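User: Quick one: structure for sequence A, then sequence B.

Assistant: Sequence A:
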Amino acid sequence: MAKKYRSKKALERGTNAVIYIILTVMSVVWLFPFFYLLLQSFRGEPGAATLYFWPHEWTFNNYIKLFTDTQTFNFPKWYGTTLIISVVVTVLQTAIVLVTSYALSRLRFKMRKPLMNLMLVLGMFPGFMSMTAIYFLLKLVGLTQEMGLVGLILVYVASSCMGYYICKGFFDTIPKSLDEAARIDGASRHTVFIRVILPLAKPIIIYTVLTAFMAPWGEYMFASLMAFGNQDYYNVAVGLKDMLKQETLYQYFTRFCAASVIISVPITALFIWLQKYYVQGVTGGSVKG
Protein backbone atom coordinates (compact mmCIF):
# COMPACT_ATOMS: atom_id res chain seq x y z
CA MET A 1 0.00 0.00 0.00
CA ALA A 2 2.80 2.36 0.96
CA LYS A 3 4.64 1.54 -2.27
CA LYS A 4 1.54 2.31 -4.30
CA TYR A 5 1.12 5.62 -2.46
CA ARG A 6 4.76 6.58 -3.11
CA SER A 7 4.36 5.74 -6.79
CA LYS A 8 1.26 7.89 -6.99
CA LYS A 9 3.02 10.83 -5.32
CA ALA A 10 6.03 10.44 -7.62
CA LEU A 11 3.71 10.44 -10.64
CA GLU A 12 2.01 13.60 -9.38
CA ARG A 13 5.35 15.33 -8.81
CA GLY A 14 6.52 14.34 -12.28
CA THR A 15 3.28 15.59 -13.87
CA ASN A 16 3.50 18.88 -11.96
CA ALA A 17 7.13 19.32 -13.01
CA VAL A 18 6.21 18.87 -16.68
CA ILE A 19 3.31 21.33 -16.31
CA TYR A 20 5.57 23.91 -14.64
CA ILE A 21 8.19 23.55 -17.38
CA ILE A 22 5.56 24.04 -20.10
CA LEU A 23 4.11 27.06 -18.31
CA THR A 24 7.58 28.54 -17.82
CA VAL A 25 8.43 28.13 -21.51
CA MET A 26 5.09 29.69 -22.49
CA SER A 27 5.69 32.62 -20.12
CA VAL A 28 9.14 33.24 -21.60
CA VAL A 29 7.72 33.15 -25.15
CA TRP A 30 4.95 35.57 -24.21
CA LEU A 31 7.14 37.96 -22.22
CA PHE A 32 10.16 38.03 -24.53
CA PRO A 33 8.67 40.59 -27.03
CA PHE A 34 7.79 42.93 -24.15
CA PHE A 35 11.25 42.56 -22.64
CA TYR A 36 12.82 43.27 -26.03
CA LEU A 37 10.58 46.33 -26.45
CA LEU A 38 11.66 47.62 -23.03
CA LEU A 39 15.35 47.18 -23.88
CA GLN A 40 14.98 48.96 -27.22
CA SER A 41 13.27 51.90 -25.54
CA PHE A 42 16.56 52.58 -23.69
CA ARG A 43 18.79 52.10 -26.74
CA GLY A 44 20.78 55.14 -27.76
CA GLU A 45 21.66 53.96 -31.27
CA PRO A 46 19.06 54.69 -33.99
CA GLY A 47 17.62 52.11 -36.34
CA ALA A 48 15.04 49.34 -36.20
CA ALA A 49 17.03 46.24 -37.14
CA THR A 50 20.13 45.51 -35.06
CA LEU A 51 22.30 42.40 -35.00
CA TYR A 52 22.68 42.54 -31.19
CA PHE A 53 20.19 42.13 -28.35
CA TRP A 54 21.55 44.35 -25.57
CA PRO A 55 21.89 48.06 -26.38
CA HIS A 56 25.46 49.33 -26.76
CA GLU A 57 24.46 52.75 -25.49
CA TRP A 58 21.85 53.23 -22.76
CA THR A 59 19.82 56.42 -22.62
CA PHE A 60 16.58 57.86 -21.26
CA ASN A 61 16.35 60.41 -24.08
CA ASN A 62 13.77 58.38 -26.01
CA TYR A 63 11.26 58.97 -23.22
CA ILE A 64 12.20 62.61 -22.79
CA LYS A 65 11.96 63.41 -26.51
CA LEU A 66 8.46 61.91 -26.68
CA PHE A 67 7.21 64.80 -24.58
CA THR A 68 9.60 67.56 -25.66
CA ASP A 69 10.07 67.00 -29.41
CA THR A 70 6.47 67.30 -30.65
CA GLN A 71 7.06 68.98 -34.00
CA THR A 72 6.86 65.77 -36.06
CA PHE A 73 4.91 63.47 -33.74
CA ASN A 74 2.82 65.03 -30.98
CA PHE A 75 2.71 62.10 -28.56
CA PRO A 76 1.43 64.09 -25.53
CA LYS A 77 -1.63 65.22 -27.50
CA TRP A 78 -2.33 61.69 -28.75
CA TYR A 79 -1.98 60.35 -25.22
CA GLY A 80 -4.30 63.01 -23.78
CA THR A 81 -6.90 62.45 -26.49
CA THR A 82 -6.86 58.70 -25.94
CA LEU A 83 -7.08 59.11 -22.16
CA ILE A 84 -10.11 61.42 -22.44
CA ILE A 85 -11.88 59.04 -24.83
CA SER A 86 -11.13 56.01 -22.66
CA VAL A 87 -12.27 57.60 -19.40
CA VAL A 88 -15.52 58.96 -20.85
CA VAL A 89 -16.28 55.67 -22.63
CA THR A 90 -15.51 53.71 -19.45
CA VAL A 91 -17.96 55.75 -17.36
CA LEU A 92 -20.78 55.71 -19.92
CA GLN A 93 -20.32 52.10 -21.02
CA THR A 94 -20.12 50.79 -17.45
CA ALA A 95 -23.33 52.59 -16.51
CA ILE A 96 -25.17 51.33 -19.61
CA VAL A 97 -23.99 47.72 -19.19
CA LEU A 98 -24.91 47.64 -15.48
CA VAL A 99 -28.44 49.00 -15.88
CA THR A 100 -29.12 46.86 -18.95
CA SER A 101 -27.86 43.71 -17.25
CA TYR A 102 -29.87 44.41 -14.10
CA ALA A 103 -33.05 44.97 -16.11
CA LEU A 104 -32.57 41.75 -18.09
CA SER A 105 -31.74 39.81 -14.94
CA ARG A 106 -34.56 41.03 -12.70
CA LEU A 107 -37.40 42.31 -14.87
CA ARG A 108 -39.77 40.14 -16.90
CA PHE A 109 -41.36 41.72 -19.94
CA LYS A 110 -42.55 40.74 -23.41
CA MET A 111 -39.86 40.01 -26.01
CA ARG A 112 -37.20 39.83 -23.28
CA LYS A 113 -35.62 36.58 -24.49
CA PRO A 114 -35.80 37.45 -28.22
CA LEU A 115 -34.21 40.82 -27.40
CA MET A 116 -31.37 39.13 -25.52
CA ASN A 117 -30.81 36.67 -28.34
CA LEU A 118 -30.87 39.46 -30.91
CA MET A 119 -28.25 41.48 -29.04
CA LEU A 120 -26.10 38.38 -28.61
CA VAL A 121 -26.23 37.56 -32.33
CA LEU A 122 -25.56 41.16 -33.41
CA GLY A 123 -22.58 41.28 -31.07
CA MET A 124 -20.97 38.39 -32.97
CA PHE A 125 -20.60 40.43 -36.15
CA PRO A 126 -17.26 42.28 -36.39
CA GLY A 127 -17.55 46.04 -36.12
CA PHE A 128 -15.57 46.77 -39.28
CA MET A 129 -18.45 45.42 -41.40
CA SER A 130 -20.39 48.64 -40.81
CA MET A 131 -17.38 50.92 -40.34
CA THR A 132 -17.64 52.72 -43.69
CA ALA A 133 -21.38 53.34 -43.36
CA ILE A 134 -20.96 54.66 -39.81
CA TYR A 135 -18.15 56.95 -40.93
CA PHE A 136 -20.25 58.58 -43.66
CA LEU A 137 -23.18 58.99 -41.26
CA LEU A 138 -20.92 60.74 -38.74
CA LYS A 139 -19.41 62.84 -41.52
CA LEU A 140 -22.89 64.06 -42.51
CA VAL A 141 -23.46 65.42 -38.98
CA GLY A 142 -19.94 66.83 -38.62
CA LEU A 143 -18.55 64.30 -36.12
CA THR A 144 -15.28 63.49 -37.91
CA GLN A 145 -11.75 64.98 -37.77
CA GLU A 146 -12.00 68.06 -35.47
CA MET A 147 -15.13 66.58 -33.85
CA GLY A 148 -13.81 63.06 -34.16
CA LEU A 149 -13.35 62.73 -30.40
CA VAL A 150 -17.11 63.06 -29.90
CA GLY A 151 -17.76 60.74 -32.82
CA LEU A 152 -15.45 58.06 -31.45
CA ILE A 153 -17.06 58.24 -28.01
CA LEU A 154 -20.49 57.95 -29.60
CA VAL A 155 -19.49 54.88 -31.63
CA TYR A 156 -17.75 53.15 -28.71
CA VAL A 157 -20.70 53.71 -26.38
CA ALA A 158 -23.53 53.07 -28.84
CA SER A 159 -23.42 49.27 -28.68
CA SER A 160 -22.53 48.97 -24.99
CA CYS A 161 -25.74 47.19 -24.00
CA MET A 162 -24.86 44.24 -26.27
CA GLY A 163 -22.11 43.27 -23.81
CA TYR A 164 -24.66 42.43 -21.14
CA TYR A 165 -24.22 38.65 -20.89
CA ILE A 166 -21.28 38.41 -18.41
CA CYS A 167 -22.71 41.10 -16.15
CA LYS A 168 -26.22 39.63 -16.30
CA GLY A 169 -24.84 36.22 -15.38
CA PHE A 170 -23.29 37.74 -12.27
CA PHE A 171 -26.54 39.49 -11.28
CA ASP A 172 -28.34 36.14 -11.68
CA THR A 173 -26.17 34.72 -8.89
CA ILE A 174 -27.38 37.38 -6.42
CA PRO A 175 -30.49 36.02 -4.62
CA LYS A 176 -33.71 37.72 -5.68
CA SER A 177 -34.90 37.48 -2.07
CA LEU A 178 -32.71 40.50 -1.33
CA ASP A 179 -34.62 42.54 -3.90
CA GLU A 180 -37.95 41.31 -2.56
CA ALA A 181 -37.04 42.12 1.06
CA ALA A 182 -36.00 45.65 0.08
CA ARG A 183 -39.18 46.13 -1.97
CA ILE A 184 -41.31 45.03 0.99
CA ASP A 185 -39.56 47.68 3.08
CA GLY A 186 -40.65 50.28 0.54
CA ALA A 187 -37.51 50.63 -1.57
CA SER A 188 -37.92 51.52 -5.23
CA ARG A 189 -36.24 49.64 -8.07
CA HIS A 190 -33.66 52.42 -8.28
CA THR A 191 -32.89 52.19 -4.55
CA VAL A 192 -32.61 48.40 -4.72
CA PHE A 193 -30.17 48.65 -7.61
CA ILE A 194 -28.01 51.36 -6.00
CA ARG A 195 -28.14 50.34 -2.33
CA VAL A 196 -28.49 46.55 -2.49
CA ILE A 197 -27.21 45.15 -5.79
CA LEU A 198 -24.24 47.36 -6.65
CA PRO A 199 -22.44 46.92 -3.29
CA LEU A 200 -22.58 43.15 -3.88
CA ALA A 201 -21.47 43.46 -7.51
CA LYS A 202 -18.01 44.98 -7.00
CA PRO A 203 -16.17 42.23 -8.95
CA ILE A 204 -18.37 42.56 -12.05
CA ILE A 205 -18.24 46.37 -11.89
CA ILE A 206 -14.43 46.24 -11.93
CA TYR A 207 -14.48 43.67 -14.75
CA THR A 208 -16.78 45.95 -16.77
CA VAL A 209 -14.60 49.00 -16.07
CA LEU A 210 -11.44 47.21 -17.21
CA THR A 211 -12.94 45.85 -20.42
CA ALA A 212 -14.57 49.22 -21.19
CA PHE A 213 -11.25 51.04 -20.70
CA MET A 214 -9.16 48.64 -22.79
CA ALA A 215 -11.28 48.77 -25.94
CA PRO A 216 -10.77 52.46 -26.88
CA TRP A 217 -7.27 52.58 -25.38
CA GLY A 218 -5.76 50.38 -28.07
CA GLU A 219 -8.33 50.71 -30.88
CA TYR A 220 -6.85 51.46 -34.29
CA MET A 221 -9.14 50.73 -37.23
CA PHE A 222 -12.03 53.11 -36.66
CA ALA A 223 -9.83 55.75 -35.01
CA SER A 224 -7.62 55.89 -38.10
CA LEU A 225 -10.66 56.30 -40.33
CA MET A 226 -12.05 59.13 -38.20
CA ALA A 227 -8.73 61.02 -38.15
CA PHE A 228 -8.41 60.68 -41.94
CA GLY A 229 -4.65 61.30 -41.95
CA ASN A 230 -4.71 64.44 -39.79
CA GLN A 231 -2.21 64.02 -36.93
CA ASP A 232 -4.05 66.51 -34.73
CA TYR A 233 -6.88 63.99 -34.26
CA TYR A 234 -4.86 60.80 -33.79
CA ASN A 235 -5.11 58.53 -30.79
CA VAL A 236 -2.00 56.70 -29.55
CA ALA A 237 -2.57 53.58 -31.67
CA VAL A 238 -2.86 55.55 -34.91
CA GLY A 239 0.01 57.86 -33.94
CA LEU A 240 2.40 55.02 -33.14
CA LYS A 241 1.54 53.31 -36.40
CA ASP A 242 2.48 56.57 -38.15
CA MET A 243 5.93 56.41 -36.50
CA LEU A 244 6.65 53.16 -38.32
CA LYS A 245 6.46 54.66 -41.80
CA GLN A 246 9.43 53.83 -43.99
CA GLU A 247 10.76 57.39 -44.04
CA THR A 248 10.68 57.77 -40.21
CA LEU A 249 11.33 54.22 -39.01
CA TYR A 250 15.11 54.53 -38.71
CA GLN A 251 15.03 57.68 -36.60
CA TYR A 252 11.93 57.04 -34.49
CA PHE A 253 11.91 53.28 -33.83
CA THR A 254 13.44 53.52 -30.35
CA ARG A 255 11.06 56.37 -29.55
CA PHE A 256 8.19 54.17 -30.73
CA CYS A 257 9.35 51.48 -28.26
CA ALA A 258 9.41 54.03 -25.44
CA ALA A 259 5.89 55.17 -26.32
CA SER A 260 4.69 51.56 -26.38
CA VAL A 261 6.05 51.04 -22.86
CA ILE A 262 4.32 54.20 -21.62
CA ILE A 263 0.90 53.33 -23.02
CA SER A 264 1.11 49.81 -21.55
CA VAL A 265 1.62 51.17 -18.02
CA PRO A 266 -2.04 52.15 -17.23
CA ILE A 267 -3.48 48.81 -18.41
CA THR A 268 -0.78 46.79 -16.63
CA ALA A 269 -1.19 48.74 -13.40
CA LEU A 270 -4.98 48.36 -13.45
CA PHE A 271 -4.77 44.61 -14.07
CA ILE A 272 -2.24 44.05 -11.30
CA TRP A 273 -4.22 46.19 -8.85
CA LEU A 274 -7.63 44.75 -9.67
CA GLN A 275 -6.70 41.22 -10.78
CA LYS A 276 -8.56 39.49 -7.93
CA TYR A 277 -11.84 41.27 -8.68
CA TYR A 278 -11.41 40.77 -12.43
CA VAL A 279 -11.18 36.98 -12.02
CA GLN A 280 -14.17 36.96 -9.65
CA GLY A 281 -16.20 38.95 -12.17
CA VAL A 282 -15.41 36.57 -15.03
CA THR A 283 -16.07 33.38 -13.05
CA GLY A 284 -19.14 34.79 -11.30
CA GLY A 285 -20.64 35.99 -14.56
CA SER A 286 -20.23 32.60 -16.21
CA VAL A 287 -22.33 30.68 -13.69
CA LYS A 288 -25.73 31.49 -15.12
CA GLY A 289 -26.95 32.93 -18.42
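Sequence B:
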Amino acid sequence: MKKMLFIVNPRSGREQIRNKLLEILDLFSGAQYQIQIHITQKPKDATEMVKQWGEGMDLVVCSGGDGTLNEIISGLVQLENPPCIGYIPAGSTNDYASSLQIPKAMMEAAQNLLSGRPYPIDIGSFCHDSYFIYIAAFGAFTEVSYQTPQDKKNLLGHQAYVLEGVKSLAALKAYPMRIEWEEQALEEEFVFGMVTNTISVGGFKGLVTQSVALNDGEFEVLLIRKPRAPKDLSSIISYLFLKEEPNDCVYKFKTSRLKFISKDPVDWVLDGEFGGSRTEVEIINLRERMNIINLV
Protein backbone atom coordinates (compact mmCIF):
# COMPACT_ATOMS: atom_id res chain seq x y z
CA MET A 1 0.00 0.00 0.00
CA LYS A 2 1.02 3.59 -0.58
CA LYS A 3 1.85 5.65 2.49
CA MET A 4 0.27 9.00 3.32
CA LEU A 5 0.98 11.48 6.11
CA PHE A 6 -2.21 13.53 6.56
CA ILE A 7 -1.73 16.70 8.62
CA VAL A 8 -4.88 18.54 9.70
CA ASN A 9 -5.26 21.97 11.29
CA PRO A 10 -8.77 21.71 12.78
CA ARG A 11 -8.91 25.43 13.60
CA SER A 12 -8.36 26.76 10.07
CA GLY A 13 -11.12 28.65 8.32
CA ARG A 14 -14.54 27.89 9.69
CA GLU A 15 -13.38 24.53 11.05
CA GLN A 16 -15.22 22.81 8.20
CA ILE A 17 -12.74 19.92 8.14
CA ARG A 18 -14.49 18.56 11.25
CA ASN A 19 -17.55 17.71 9.14
CA LYS A 20 -15.60 16.21 6.24
CA LEU A 21 -12.71 14.36 7.85
CA LEU A 22 -14.23 10.87 7.99
CA GLU A 23 -15.46 11.16 4.42
CA ILE A 24 -12.02 12.24 3.21
CA LEU A 25 -10.28 9.45 5.13
CA ASP A 26 -12.70 6.93 3.63
CA LEU A 27 -11.85 8.25 0.15
CA PHE A 28 -8.10 7.91 0.71
CA SER A 29 -8.44 4.46 2.30
CA GLY A 30 -10.45 3.32 -0.70
CA ALA A 31 -7.57 4.44 -2.91
CA GLN A 32 -5.26 2.01 -1.08
CA TYR A 33 -3.44 4.55 1.07
CA GLN A 34 -2.10 3.59 4.47
CA ILE A 35 -2.80 6.81 6.36
CA GLN A 36 -0.96 8.30 9.30
CA ILE A 37 -2.94 11.29 10.53
CA HIS A 38 -1.78 14.10 12.79
CA ILE A 39 -3.96 16.87 14.23
CA THR A 40 -1.85 19.98 14.81
CA GLN A 41 -1.62 21.12 18.44
CA LYS A 42 0.52 24.26 18.34
CA PRO A 43 2.48 26.58 16.01
CA LYS A 44 5.26 24.83 14.03
CA ASP A 45 3.76 21.45 14.96
CA ALA A 46 3.27 20.52 11.30
CA THR A 47 6.92 21.28 10.51
CA GLU A 48 8.15 18.94 13.24
CA MET A 49 5.78 16.15 12.20
CA VAL A 50 6.92 16.36 8.58
CA LYS A 51 10.58 16.27 9.59
CA GLN A 52 9.90 13.27 11.82
CA TRP A 53 7.59 11.23 9.58
CA GLY A 54 7.80 12.66 6.06
CA GLU A 55 10.75 10.61 4.79
CA GLY A 56 9.49 7.45 3.11
CA MET A 57 5.95 8.72 2.59
CA ASP A 58 4.46 8.69 -0.90
CA LEU A 59 2.33 11.75 -0.19
CA VAL A 60 2.03 14.40 2.53
CA VAL A 61 -1.43 15.95 2.57
CA CYS A 62 -2.19 19.29 4.21
CA SER A 63 -5.65 20.33 5.32
CA GLY A 64 -5.49 23.88 6.63
CA GLY A 65 -4.74 27.40 5.50
CA ASP A 66 -1.69 28.89 3.81
CA GLY A 67 0.10 29.08 7.17
CA THR A 68 -0.28 25.34 7.72
CA LEU A 69 0.93 24.69 4.19
CA ASN A 70 3.95 26.88 4.92
CA GLU A 71 4.80 24.80 8.00
CA ILE A 72 4.65 21.60 5.95
CA ILE A 73 6.80 23.06 3.17
CA SER A 74 9.31 24.26 5.79
CA GLY A 75 9.61 20.69 7.03
CA LEU A 76 9.73 19.00 3.64
CA VAL A 77 12.47 21.27 2.29
CA GLN A 78 14.78 19.91 5.01
CA LEU A 79 14.32 16.29 3.89
CA GLU A 80 16.76 14.62 1.52
CA ASN A 81 13.99 13.05 -0.58
CA PRO A 82 10.78 15.00 0.08
CA PRO A 83 7.52 13.38 -1.04
CA CYS A 84 4.85 15.14 -3.09
CA ILE A 85 2.42 17.51 -1.36
CA GLY A 86 -1.35 17.33 -1.52
CA TYR A 87 -3.35 20.38 -0.48
CA ILE A 88 -6.94 20.48 0.75
CA PRO A 89 -7.43 24.22 1.46
CA ALA A 90 -9.42 25.03 4.60
CA GLY A 91 -8.23 28.51 5.59
CA SER A 92 -9.81 31.96 5.48
CA THR A 93 -8.33 33.15 2.17
CA ASN A 94 -6.32 30.26 0.64
CA ASP A 95 -4.26 32.46 -1.68
CA TYR A 96 -1.98 29.72 -2.92
CA ALA A 97 -4.85 27.36 -3.66
CA SER A 98 -6.34 30.10 -5.85
CA SER A 99 -3.10 30.29 -7.82
CA LEU A 100 -3.21 26.54 -8.42
CA GLN A 101 -6.97 26.58 -9.13
CA ILE A 102 -7.53 24.00 -6.41
CA PRO A 103 -11.28 23.65 -5.71
CA LYS A 104 -12.67 25.30 -2.59
CA ALA A 105 -14.94 22.30 -1.96
CA MET A 106 -12.94 20.00 0.31
CA MET A 107 -14.15 16.68 -1.13
CA GLU A 108 -13.48 17.86 -4.66
CA ALA A 109 -9.97 18.94 -3.66
CA ALA A 110 -9.40 15.53 -2.03
CA GLN A 111 -10.60 13.69 -5.13
CA ASN A 112 -8.25 15.76 -7.28
CA LEU A 113 -5.32 14.44 -5.23
CA LEU A 114 -6.13 10.95 -6.51
CA SER A 115 -6.39 11.94 -10.18
CA GLY A 116 -3.78 14.73 -10.38
CA ARG A 117 -0.06 14.55 -11.04
CA PRO A 118 3.08 16.10 -9.52
CA TYR A 119 3.52 19.75 -10.48
CA PRO A 120 6.87 21.45 -9.70
CA ILE A 121 6.72 24.73 -7.76
CA ASP A 122 9.24 27.33 -6.63
CA ILE A 123 9.94 27.91 -2.94
CA GLY A 124 11.32 31.06 -1.35
CA SER A 125 14.33 30.92 0.97
CA PHE A 126 14.21 33.67 3.61
CA CYS A 127 17.53 34.52 5.30
CA HIS A 128 18.70 30.93 4.75
CA ASP A 129 16.77 29.74 7.81
CA SER A 130 13.08 30.08 6.89
CA TYR A 131 10.93 29.45 3.83
CA PHE A 132 7.78 30.70 2.16
CA ILE A 133 5.64 29.30 -0.60
CA TYR A 134 3.86 32.38 -1.93
CA ILE A 135 4.66 35.65 -0.11
CA ALA A 136 7.19 37.44 2.07
CA ALA A 137 6.06 40.96 3.01
CA PHE A 138 6.52 43.90 5.36
CA GLY A 139 4.69 47.11 6.18
CA ALA A 140 1.04 48.21 5.90
CA PHE A 141 -1.56 45.42 6.01
CA THR A 142 0.97 42.66 6.74
CA GLU A 143 0.35 42.58 10.48
CA VAL A 144 -3.34 41.96 9.73
CA SER A 145 -2.72 38.34 8.77
CA TYR A 146 -1.19 37.28 12.07
CA GLN A 147 -2.86 39.78 14.43
CA THR A 148 -6.45 39.11 13.35
CA PRO A 149 -7.86 36.66 15.94
CA GLN A 150 -8.66 33.21 14.57
CA ASP A 151 -12.26 33.40 15.77
CA LYS A 152 -12.74 36.63 13.81
CA LYS A 153 -11.22 35.00 10.72
CA ASN A 154 -13.59 32.06 11.15
CA LEU A 155 -16.59 34.34 11.57
CA LEU A 156 -15.89 36.81 8.79
CA GLY A 157 -13.55 34.91 6.48
CA HIS A 158 -11.86 37.15 3.92
CA GLN A 159 -13.79 40.20 5.20
CA ALA A 160 -11.70 40.04 8.39
CA TYR A 161 -8.57 40.91 6.45
CA VAL A 162 -10.28 43.77 4.68
CA LEU A 163 -11.73 45.23 7.90
CA GLU A 164 -8.48 45.01 9.83
CA GLY A 165 -6.45 46.24 6.87
CA VAL A 166 -8.46 49.41 6.45
CA LYS A 167 -7.70 50.28 10.09
CA SER A 168 -3.96 50.32 9.34
CA LEU A 169 -4.33 52.95 6.62
CA ALA A 170 -4.67 55.66 9.26
CA ALA A 171 -1.23 54.92 10.68
CA LEU A 172 1.11 54.22 7.78
CA LYS A 173 4.66 53.69 8.99
CA ALA A 174 7.60 54.23 6.67
CA TYR A 175 10.70 52.01 6.64
CA PRO A 176 13.94 53.51 5.23
CA MET A 177 15.53 50.71 3.21
CA ARG A 178 18.10 49.86 0.60
CA ILE A 179 16.99 47.11 -1.76
CA GLU A 180 19.49 45.33 -4.01
CA TRP A 181 18.74 42.92 -6.85
CA GLU A 182 20.82 41.74 -9.77
CA GLU A 183 22.89 44.85 -10.65
CA GLN A 184 20.35 47.37 -9.40
CA ALA A 185 19.64 49.15 -6.12
CA LEU A 186 16.89 51.35 -4.71
CA GLU A 187 16.88 53.49 -1.57
CA GLU A 188 13.57 54.84 -0.33
CA GLU A 189 11.18 55.02 2.60
CA PHE A 190 8.67 52.25 1.99
CA VAL A 191 5.27 51.72 3.59
CA PHE A 192 4.79 48.29 2.04
CA GLY A 193 6.76 45.63 0.22
CA MET A 194 6.06 42.11 -0.94
CA VAL A 195 7.93 39.35 -2.74
CA THR A 196 5.42 36.92 -4.21
CA ASN A 197 4.87 33.79 -6.24
CA THR A 198 1.08 33.88 -6.48
CA ILE A 199 -1.80 35.56 -8.32
CA SER A 200 -3.78 36.25 -5.13
CA VAL A 201 -2.71 38.15 -1.99
CA GLY A 202 -5.13 38.39 0.92
CA GLY A 203 -7.89 37.34 -1.43
CA PHE A 204 -7.17 40.21 -3.85
CA LYS A 205 -6.18 39.23 -7.39
CA GLY A 206 -5.28 42.72 -8.62
CA LEU A 207 -2.00 43.24 -6.76
CA VAL A 208 0.06 40.96 -9.01
CA THR A 209 -0.14 40.05 -12.66
CA GLN A 210 -2.41 37.15 -13.56
CA SER A 211 0.27 35.63 -15.80
CA VAL A 212 2.46 34.55 -12.88
CA ALA A 213 4.28 31.25 -13.40
CA LEU A 214 4.77 29.30 -10.18
CA ASN A 215 7.92 27.55 -11.42
CA ASP A 216 9.82 30.07 -13.56
CA GLY A 217 12.49 30.74 -10.96
CA GLU A 218 11.45 34.38 -10.47
CA PHE A 219 9.50 36.36 -7.88
CA GLU A 220 7.16 39.27 -8.51
CA VAL A 221 8.20 42.21 -6.33
CA LEU A 222 5.93 45.14 -5.42
CA LEU A 223 7.13 48.10 -3.34
CA ILE A 224 5.17 51.18 -2.28
CA ARG A 225 7.08 54.26 -1.17
CA LYS A 226 5.99 56.67 1.54
CA PRO A 227 3.32 59.14 0.36
CA ARG A 228 4.77 62.64 0.05
CA ALA A 229 1.49 64.44 -0.57
CA PRO A 230 -2.22 63.73 -0.04
CA LYS A 231 -2.60 62.82 -3.71
CA ASP A 232 0.03 60.10 -3.28
CA LEU A 233 -2.10 58.28 -0.72
CA SER A 234 -5.17 58.43 -2.95
CA SER A 235 -3.18 57.13 -5.92
CA ILE A 236 -1.85 54.23 -3.83
CA ILE A 237 -5.36 53.29 -2.70
CA SER A 238 -6.59 53.54 -6.29
CA TYR A 239 -3.80 51.24 -7.43
CA LEU A 240 -4.45 48.67 -4.72
CA PHE A 241 -8.23 48.52 -4.94
CA LEU A 242 -9.17 49.90 -8.36
CA LYS A 243 -6.29 48.27 -10.27
CA GLU A 244 -5.20 51.50 -11.94
CA GLU A 245 -1.95 51.71 -13.86
CA PRO A 246 1.27 51.89 -11.79
CA ASN A 247 2.43 55.34 -10.71
CA ASP A 248 5.54 56.89 -9.23
CA CYS A 249 4.60 55.62 -5.76
CA VAL A 250 4.80 51.98 -6.86
CA TYR A 251 7.79 49.94 -7.97
CA LYS A 252 7.32 46.54 -9.65
CA PHE A 253 9.90 44.14 -11.04
CA LYS A 254 10.85 40.46 -11.28
CA THR A 255 13.95 38.81 -9.91
CA SER A 256 15.22 35.51 -8.56
CA ARG A 257 17.22 36.99 -5.69
CA LEU A 258 17.21 40.23 -3.69
CA LYS A 259 18.35 41.80 -0.44
CA PHE A 260 16.67 44.27 1.94
CA ILE A 261 18.86 46.35 4.29
CA SER A 262 17.49 48.67 7.00
CA LYS A 263 18.96 50.46 10.00
CA ASP A 264 16.14 49.43 12.35
CA PRO A 265 14.51 45.97 12.60
CA VAL A 266 11.52 45.45 10.30
CA ASP A 267 8.76 42.92 10.96
CA TRP A 268 8.19 40.40 8.14
CA VAL A 269 5.31 38.09 7.37
CA LEU A 270 5.79 34.75 5.59
CA ASP A 271 2.66 33.20 4.09
CA GLY A 272 0.44 35.04 6.55
CA GLU A 273 2.45 34.17 9.67
CA PHE A 274 4.98 36.26 11.60
CA GLY A 275 8.43 35.68 10.10
CA GLY A 276 10.60 37.64 12.51
CA SER A 277 12.09 41.12 12.85
CA ARG A 278 15.24 41.76 10.77
CA THR A 279 17.62 44.50 9.69
CA GLU A 280 18.94 42.48 6.74
CA VAL A 281 16.95 40.05 4.65
CA GLU A 282 18.10 37.95 1.70
CA ILE A 283 15.46 36.18 -0.37
CA ILE A 284 16.33 33.50 -2.92
CA ASN A 285 14.09 31.62 -5.33
CA LEU A 286 14.58 27.85 -5.07
CA ARG A 287 13.30 26.89 -8.50
CA GLU A 288 11.03 23.82 -8.73
CA ARG A 289 12.16 22.75 -5.25
CA MET A 290 8.87 20.98 -4.41
CA ASN A 291 6.16 18.98 -6.16
CA ILE A 292 2.49 19.49 -5.41
CA ILE A 293 -0.33 17.31 -6.76
CA ASN A 294 -2.44 19.28 -9.19
CA LEU A 295 -4.63 18.89 -12.28
CA VAL A 296 -3.00 21.70 -14.32
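The longest strand covers residues 273-294. The two ends are 26 Å apart (CA to CA).

User: Thanks, that's what I needed.
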